Amino acid sequence: MSGVGLVVALTGGIGSGKTTVADRLAVLGAGVIDTDEISRALTARDGAALEPITAVFGPDIRLADGTLDRARLRELVFSDPSARARLESILHPRIEAIMLERLAALQTDYAVLVIPLLFETGQERHADRVLVVDVPESIQIARVMRRSGLSETEVRRIIAGQIPRLERNARADDLVDNSGTRADLEPRLRELHRIYTRMAAAR
Ligand code: ATP
């Protein structure tokens, strides 16, 4: 198993602030594993998932330079649930395997696994606690639009494909409210860091 004393799964809706929170906890001393980053590496040029994705979706899923046509793939999986399931069956087991491999190698007091679709993929079993980053939908939409250039309709469509906010929050052991500034996050993140460090030592 892992070398850490406590495993925390960090989740939240798109643009809620998962990366922002995880980066800060890493600075405080947490061992962070980001499954989004693993997913990007798997689907990058020469990534291990690129060939399996091409085998399932056809050569048109690659751009002329050989890289993945992410816009096309996103469109496909949004309009077709079975395409989404096929993509997930390629990506999720690979992401999970790499995540667990990295977790086993960590030497920090506690680990933070950033898993955007934690409940949707049933991965709570890997964690001792679940930490949810929460923002009201209006802030979530504004931040994602500012960052990505997606339209409000597109952001709402992504949100609609995720577990509803209240359900996600109800399943959290710990919550971080990220509706304020980044500086506003600081006391709560320091508190959580203290709590997790203490819990890890007690196990
Ligand atoms: P995704 O689900 O897309 O991976 P995420 O949950 O990891 O996103 P972040 O990338 O941390 O969220 O934050 C989303 C955007 O909002 C980023 O552009 C980030 O810089 C910005 N942001 C995060 N927290 C705050 C804050 N408290 N105040 C203002 N902007 C913020």
UniProtKB/TrEMBL annotation:
Primary subcellular site in the record, as a coarse category: cytoplasm
Residues binding ATP, per UniProt: G15, S16, G17, K18, T19, T20
Entry's EC annotation: 2.7.1.24
Pathway as given in its UniProt record: Cofactor biosynthesis; coenzyme A biosynthesis; CoA from (R)-pantothenate: step 5/5
Entry keyword set: ATP-binding, Coenzyme A biosynthesis, Cytoplasm, Kinase, Nucleotide-binding, Transferase
Keyword Zinc-finger: no
Enzyme class per UniProt: transferase
GO molecular function: kinase activity
Reaction equation(s) it catalyzes: 3'-dephospho-CoA + ATP = ADP + CoA + H(+)
Subcellular location: Cytoplasm
Superkingdom of the source species: Bacteria
Family under the similarity heading: Belongs to the CoaE family.
Protein task: Catalyzes the phosphorylation of the 3'-hydroxyl group of dephosphocoenzyme A to form coenzyme A.
NCBIfam families (alphabetical): dephospho-CoA kinase
PANTHER family: BIFUNCTIONAL COENZYME A SYNTHASE-RELATED, DEPHOSPHO-COA KINASE-RELATED
The protein's name: Dephospho-CoA kinase
